[in-house]
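user: can you give me the structure for this one chain? tokens are fine.
assistant: on it. calling the predictor now.
[tool input]
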Amino acid sequence: MLIEFLNKLYLKPQQYQLVWLYIIGQINDGNVVNLTIKSIRKKFDLPKSKLYRILSFGLMFFNKQLKGIYISNVNGVLSIEVIRSGSINKVDEKVETVVENVVENVLKKKRKKVLPNELTTSVIKYLNQKTNKNFSINTEPTINLINKRAKEGFTLEDFIYVIDVKIPKWINTEQADYLRPNTLFGNKMESYLNEKIIKNERNDKFTQTQSAVNRAKAEVDWFPKD
């Protein structure tokens, strides 16, 4: 039962592995261990719905009082105990091997940190410059998103064009909050590339007026001579 569970856990996302390795690690042979779901949620900082999906995955393997591990959920408390029979006195070596493989898989994922490349750095710096925001170039979801678009054939010029095309339309409006990487470079990026860049008329008029004033100041003697 445990080997079957660990083999399936090995294929699950990292959060599943971390939570269930923690739960299994609380086993105290010969004693019943009580673990509150609230404490697990606090430890891993998971939304309630996500945690319950993770727990449901594992509980279906341990809900029968057969030999092995039995885990029940009563009023938000997990009760964990080892059910032994006959000559079972130690954990099977196969189980230990599978546990080691799962742990190693988790550690590999944690060690494999995604680093920003030249494209990501250039795109985010340009976005920050244009929006006066401070998006990090080290955020993994942002790096993955930009890399995904790059693999689809989008270039640095494409990212810059999308930024330039959406800023005049969204800046100083209710859509200003959408001037962020996951919106600009998401699934609609291609459609944004087919939009035309519009000029901000208010800013243009202000610039033109200011330029005219500056020219007038340069040409006219504002102060009487002594």
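assistant: here you go. Residues 118-218 form one domain. Strands lie at 33-36, 68-74, 77-83.
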